[in-house]
Each structure stands twice: as C-alpha cells, then as structure tokens.
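Bug report (template v2)

What were you trying to do?
Predict the complex of my protein with flavin-adenine dinucleotide.

What happened?
Run completed; filing so the output is reviewed.

Input:
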Amino acid sequence: MSAIERLEDVELRQLNTMGIAARAAELFEVRDPVAVPALWARFDTAPLVVGSGSNIVLAADPRMPLVRFRNADIELISDDGDRVQWRVGAGKIWHELVMDSVAQGLFGLENLAYIPGTVGACPIQNIGAYGVEVNSAIESVHAFEPRTGEWYHLSNADCEFAYRDSLFKQDLSRFVITDVTFNLYRRGEPRLDYAGLRDALPDAATLTPTPQQIADAVVAIRKAKLPDPTVLGNAGSFFKNPIVPLQVADALVAQYPQMPVFRGSSDATRKLSAAWLIDQSGWKGHRDGDAGVAPGHALVLVNYGNASGADIMNLAQRIMDSVEQRFGIRIEPEPRVVS
Ligand SMILES: Cc1cc2nc3c(=O)[nH]c(=O)nc-3n(C[C@H](O)[C@H](O)[C@H](O)COP(=O)(O)OP(=O)(O)OC[C@H]3O[C@@H](n4cnc5c(N)ncnc54)[C@H](O)[C@@H]3O)c2cc1C
C-alpha cells in the first residue's frame, strides 16, 4: 500500500459530524507520515487537515486540498511496571484508543471516553471532559512544520496547553501532527469529582473503580446527554463560553441574578455560560428548515438532514446577533469554520 493516496472530487458528508454535503476537489490520505514533507511541498495553498471532522463546519466547498491521516498504530515505547508509554498514530480514532487503554487496565484516558475525533486532533484544543484534560496524559507531540521543513518532538510544556487551547490552536496551519506519545498508569488515581460520574458507577466500584468501569460510566452518561452525530448531525458545543471583564459580569448579574457565572483565567475575568445566554434569548429547540438548535441543548446546532454549511452559519449568525442585542455580549463559534 502506498504512503499516500490521492482522491479526487470527494463527497465530505461522511467526513464531518455535522453531516454537511460539501465536496473537496482533492483529498490525500496519509498512511505513512514519512511522506509528509514531500506532500506539503506539492501544495500552493495550505491544505486543511481533517480528522473525524467533529470540530469543523464546512461553510462551503473547501477551496484548499484536504489531508487525512490514516496511520493508526500503537507503539509501546516503554513500560516500567507502573508507567506505560504509547506512541499513537494521528489517524487513530480517539475513542478506540481510550478503549484499548482501559482494556489493558491503564489509567489516564478513561474520563475522556466517547469524545469524537482522532488522536492527531486531541492536542489541538486540549480535549477535556469529566474533570480531565488530555494534556494530563500527553508526554510529547511529534509534528512537522511546513514553513521551516523541520520535525519536532514537542514536550508537554512546549505545547502550551490551557483550557481548550494549545500552541497548535494559536496558528492552525503551523504544525502537522503525525503522532502523540501518552503516559498511562497501572496504579492510577480515579478522577470522579465531576457531577454524576460517581453515581453512574456500579455500586461495588465506587471506591476502587477500574479504568474500564470509569470509561463505561462516562460513555453511558454521554450517550444519555448528547445528541449522537451519527443520528443527528452536530459538532458538539457550537459556541465558546464568553470570557468577560469582572465588571461586565457584575453588571449582568445585577440585572439577571440567576445568570450562571464562573471564574475566568484570572481574578479580573469571568466566564459566562453561552448555553444560558442562548437559551434566555429563546433559541433552544428553534429550527430553520434543516438547521436547528438541539431541543435539549442550547449550545448544540444540529443538521436535521440536508442543511448546507451556509444554512448552519446563517442560523449561527442570527443567534450571535440576538445574544449580543439582548446581553451586549458577542459569542463566537467553537469549531473551525472552513470556506
Ligand atoms: C458530539 C460531540 C461531542 C464533543 N464533545 C467534546 C468534549 O467533551 N470535549 C472536547 O474537548 N471536545 C468535544 N468535541 C469536539 C471534538 O470532539 C474535538 O475537538 C476533537 O478533538 C476533534 O477531532 P477531529 O479529529 O474530529 O478533528 P477535526 O474536526 O477534523 O479538526 C479539528 C481541527 O484540528 C485540525 N487537525 C486535525 N487533525 C490534525 C493533525 N493531525 N495535525 C494538525 N491539525 C489537525 C483541523 O485542521 C482542525 O483545525 C465534541 C464534538 C462532538 C461532535
């Protein structure tokens, strides 16, 4: 099998969880990352790397070529009896990696079960759920920088991980991630603080749950809570929670005492709930043709079947405008909008 396969005029509906029926003129599937420098040398415009397309919105047919990693091997790097290091290909499906690790009794990724996407994308927004962010398990990220032609083994500190943020997110075309090395542990600390997680464990497991039991509980909670993209197209949380100066938050709370407010990244800022702002603006369950806001989730925009990227973005625009009109706060899309 060749290192790279080139496909033409590709239908993308299956390659984005929103289920938008865009087309790409060219899609390159990479099975061996050794071929990455030569592939990038062919491009006049920066390509779009797609994983599972669970954090992108195809607002139109992408004008750039697409690249998809299909390298999905797990390589054992070291095992000292407690800590096990795995290097994993960018094309590995994230949830499969989590299930592979918990099946071997390894702690580290169990709270992150059932997050859609690929290993190559997991460092980009430092995926997180149920009280854990993936940076807690990442040893290093192997990446190619097309601008300089250099390969890097970026350490955890180099990656500048923060809440839903990283070095990679600051400039999305700077690095191409080809594999990620994880630290996993046989004697781990179960992290069960997140609301509802402990209750979802089997009774006998609440004190010393295995990683498998925690992952299974997370999967059960997520299945019950979130619309499944294979049934109803969506990109998870469509809007970021806005961060505002403390004074702005205080003025809003004076007007809307029931408004949820969380600590921001510093004492001078506060994080507001985009879901609450959208719900209060009357959008939960709203539907414009096949584009809608999920009935149970103000933060999740859904494709009921044949919504185009433009339909989804028009609805998003109307929601952002109406929240701004009512609360004076501009919310922004969370996924990468591609046109
Ligand atoms: C139902 C649902 C629930 C979700 N729940 C969560 C959650 O709980 N927590 C959370 O953090 N996120 C969540 N997400 C968001 C999403 O799962 C993550 O952002 C995920 O990491 C995206 O992976 P992907 O492979 O689909 O990336 P894509 O959507 O394909 O790409 C996302 C970005 O990463 C870039 N990219 C992808 N692969 C590479 C690579 N190898 N090298 C360089 N750049 C790359 C793309 O160019 C793009 O900018 C959810 C999404 C959905 C649909």
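What did the reviewer find?
Residues 278 and 319 are 7 Å apart (CA to CA). The chain has seven helices and 20 strands.
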